[in-house]
Amino acid sequence: MNSGLERDLASLREARAHLELLLAQLPLVVATTDRDLRLTHCSGAGLAGLGISPGQLVGTRAQDFFGIEDPSFEPIAHASKALAGIESSLEMAWGGRHFRVHLQPLRAESGAVTGVLVVALDNTEEVKAQAALGESEATSRGLLENMAEGVYRTREDGAIVLANPALVRMLGFESEEQLRRCEATELYVDPAERAAHLEELHREGVLKLAELRLRRRDGAIITVLENARLVRTEHGDIAFYEGTLTDITERKRLEEQLAVAQRLDAVGRLAGGFAHDFNNLLMVVKSGTHVATSELPEDHAAREALTSVADAAKRAGLLVRRLMSLGRREMPRPTRLDIDAAARDAEPLLRRLVSDDVKVQIELGRPGAVLLDPVQLEQILTNLVTNASHAMPRGGRLLIATRRVEADTPSGERRPHAEIEVSDDGVGMDDEVRARLFEPFFSRRGGGGTGLGLSTVDVILEQAGGHVLVESAPGNGTTFRVRLPLLEERDDPREPAGEDAAPASPATILVVDDEPHLLTLLATLLRREGYVVHEAPRPSAALALLRDGVAVDLLLTDVMLPEMLGPMLVERALEARPGIAVLYMTGYADSPGFKASVASGGVAWLQKPFAPALLIERVRGVLAARA
Question: Distances in Å between the alpha carbon of 141 and those of 30, 88, 138, 578?
Fold first, then answer.
């Protein structure tokens, strides 16, 4: 019997040793207390994290260990529940470690509760890992929610399973949930684009900087750049597609504007090179016909032919100015302009702008004259008629009417205005389009227009002290009412004095132009008026004359010259002869400094081709100002 008892005791000792070995290796703390919560046992590898050795706390009250007597303190409260026969668990941090604690009643064989059994698992590393994971998820979520690019994830069937706030806003939806009720296939403008992108994704696994067009919820079309990848399951099946979308609609618009500006600049440079030479030739024609006509008797048969040549040269000059206006390089020349006469002159051009199925009706109401460059008025009419023509793709009626009205000037003064009405019975426009109508580069024709026509109208009218009114509604056509202040008889129209001006006072003029025929004719015209004239075909020849001491009262020079531009010649001429008067001539001035001086009124100049009478009038005016 003793041997059996010894075996039992040995088995118990072995089991206890085994248990203590397990406790020494597992991150646990196992403790028991009596009913006063005084520790009767405490062991386990979890004690090492607290810097406590096994058995060190035996005999210590739990309240003393925590240093808290408050019965509501969570560990004490849970221990009290265990003394009352109730199991419970809690999570707690202590001594720089984190524990998951389970407490249950410790019972005697009779079932009476004699204390508390406490098992605490040290899960500090798990808590740290969860905290790091949570922080990482929060960071990722924050990045996702604050990214400027749209982020998505879709299934193979097109169902949207993830969309960040940027994508929701980009596509015009109110929430991610609302967007997820759509399918990706519904957002593509062209299904063929989606098919091509999916084909590349399946082939390459990734999609880089692919450009595509999407349709927003409000119907507007945007252009985006897509970067995407295909994610497969471990079995090789398609799990989902995910990627980013960058809205480049504005960038594309700016690129188109830049392309338009570059095309206009190219047209302007081409027109400028053409205009410089052609205007010089026209000047020779106009001046030559003037000299020849003045030498002939009134009844000479050739006078009529010469008059026709002069008229043709005048019309050719207008054509050059039209070409220059295309490149936005023409400097305005405001003059007294009869509205009805200008409308009649422009009528053949305007009729060519509309299709045969558009009926053009012109009603002239004799409003009077305004102060405006004829080419600018032609630009206004051309742009408005072009706009009307595009609003009537199936034909219709176009009305151009003039009348006299009372209207306010920008300063609030009530005065007579000339009104030009251009109305059509086309498709009309809504409030949103009408609000943007005069914005530069805004066009309703997609890639079919520059978007500069109506903005040009607005700029011209602002410079001329006028304005434009627009009336339109979808399906009810559009009416533009252009209003310009009328000139009264006493208003200065800025026109030349003409043949009846006072005779010239004695003066010496140095004429500089690289066109030899024009140089000769200009000298002839000025000598006929009594001036002493020196001719210089190049800037160097002009400067040589001045340095040789030739007395010169007025320098009449072209702007575009070989060797140096006219403004540079003037600068050096003033060094050689301070106080000399200056009058520029230009058929095309691609000099920012000269243009700025003209705009500020700082220089006297003539636009080629000019009438001989205007030349004489300007020469007299400049010399008079110098005196």
Answer: 40, 36, 5, 75
pLDDT score for 23: 57
Looking at residue 592, its pLDDT comes to 55
pLDDT at residue 338 tops 80: yes
pLDDT(535) > 80: yes
Residue 302: both structure tokens together? 């050739």
Q: Which residues contact 133 (CB under 8 A, 6 or more apart)?
A: none
C-beta of residue 519 within 8 angstroms of C-beta of residue 535: yes
Mean pLDDT of the chain: 83
Point out which residues pair with 38 in neighbouring strands.
61
pLDDT band at 274 (very low <50, low <70, confident <90, very high): low
Q: Which run of H or of E encompasses 367?
A: none
Sign of the alpha-carbon torsion through 64, 69, 73, 77? positive
Contact predicate 194/183, CB 8 Å: no
Which pairs count as long-range contacts for 217-220, CB under 8 Å and 24+ apart, including other chains? Answer: 217/171, 217/172, 217/173, 218/172, 220/172
Whole-number pLDDT of residue 73 = 94
Domains, the chain, ranges and CATH? 20-127 (3.30.450.20), 147-247 (3.30.450.20), 335-493 (3.30.565.10), 508-626 (3.40.50.2300)
> Going by C-beta distance under 8 Å and a sequence separation of 6 or more, which residues neighbour residue 66?
73, 75, 76, 94
- Specify the long-range contacts of residues 305-312, CB closer than 8 Å, at least 24 apart: 309/285, 310/285, 310/286
Q: How far is 391 from 453, CA to CA, in rounded Å? A: 14
| 69-83, 132-146, 173-187, 225-239: segment of lowest average pLDDT | 132-146
Burial of 492 (0-12, 13-18, 19+ CB in 10 A): exposed
Q: Which residue has the higher pLDDT, 608 or 489?
A: 608
What letter would DSSP give residue 27?
S
* Residue 92: count of CB within 10 angstroms of its CB: 13
- Side by side, the strands of the sheet bearing 39-43 are 39-43, 28-34, 113-122, 97-107, 88-94
Give the C-alpha distances (Å, rounded to integers) separating 112 from 76, 89, 109, 117, 189: 20, 21, 7, 14, 78
More confident residue, 330 or 138: 138
DSSP string over 54-108: TTTTTT-BHHHHHT---TTSHHHHHHHHHHTT--EEEEEEETTEEEEEEEEEEE-
Six-digit token string for 523 = 């000298």
Q: What percent of the chain has pLDDT above 90?
A: 36
**H-helix or E-strand spanning residue 542:** helix 539-547
Q: How many CA atoms lie within 13 A of 353 on its CB side?
A: 21
Question: Can you read off the two tokens belonging to residue 128?
Answer: 């740290």
Long-range contacts of 216-225 (CB under 8 A, 24+ apart): 216/170, 216/171, 216/172, 217/171, 217/172, 217/173, 218/172, 220/172, 221/189, 222/170, 222/247, 222/249, 223/247, 223/248, 223/249, 223/252, 224/150, 224/170, 224/248, 224/249
Q: How far apart are CA 264 and CA 51, in angstroms?
A: 83
Say whether pLDDT at 268 is over 70: no
Q: Side chain identity at 120, as an amino acid letter? A: A
pLDDT tens column, 616-627:
999 999 999 876
Q: Is the pLDDT of residue 495 over 50?
A: no
Q: Give the strand pairing for 581-586 and 605-607.
A: parallel
Report the SS3 class of residue 268. Answer: helix
Residue labelled with tokens 């109305």: 423
- On whether the CB atoms of residues 149 and 242 are closer than 8 A, the answer is no
